[in-house]
Amino acid sequence: MATSSTATQRTYRYLRLSIVGAVLALFVSLIVVASQVGALPPSISAMLYTPGRTVFVGVLFAVAVAFLALSGHSVAQALIDIAAVFAVLIVIIPTPVASGEVPDVEVVCPEGAIRCVPESEWANIANGMLTFAGFGLIAVAGVLALAALQQTLSAGVWVTAAAASLVILGATGWWALARTSFLDVGHFVVTTCFFALIAVVSGLAARGAGRGYRFGYAAIAIGIAIDLTVLLIAAVTRAPVVLAGEVTGLLLFAAFWILQTAENWTDSDPAITR
Prior knowledge:
The chain has 8 helices and 2 strands, in the order H-H-H-E-E-H-H-H-H-H. By secondary structure, the chain is mainly α. The chain has a two-stranded antiparallel sheet. The protein starts with 6 loop residues before the first helix and ends in an 11-residue tail after the last helix.
């Protein structure tokens, strides 16, 4: 039986489902990469150095745009907006790799370093960071101007814009002033921030959800927290579990948006409000 719906409801459904679809596309690309090079990359982030680079970049930019398009005025939405900024940084800052970890990628690291970002990526990073800083600040100004025009310029919008600006300026300053540490741990830091924000948003959703969804949101928040802890330990001990940890994090991420889609399927105002 057909179900009536408004254009707004359909738009939000498609946005949330497109995020889940983006994760699926990344997994399909990962399988294709493994068949092309004969082995799985050491991490999903390392797909940037493989034939899966285009899909990896496209997926994260698509997720960032979808996050920003999901309008709302709650704390959760503000955190989602900040997560969009970190999603872009995940693409711009490559993960360090060791020589031989990725087929056909030559890596010459400084003496004493096992993993590093190949020098061939430095020009791409410079272009990305300068574009990120310039366009990012213009976008923040545009958001404030649009909110003023729509008469929705609230304290929450100002706080979110200020937080986004701090991330943009902080990341750019880190790249400009401490490039070695930026290249060594920048990708890990921004990826951790991205998933930590999703965990917090899932926890907030659990507080306001009905009984049928509360457990699912709470389980996702706890699962992401545990997963990030495992990945932090793996980064310190160099345990070969990074790919498994990233896959787990993405599955939990997709599960969150599946729950969001199901919970808000028939809402008249389906924006993130909790």
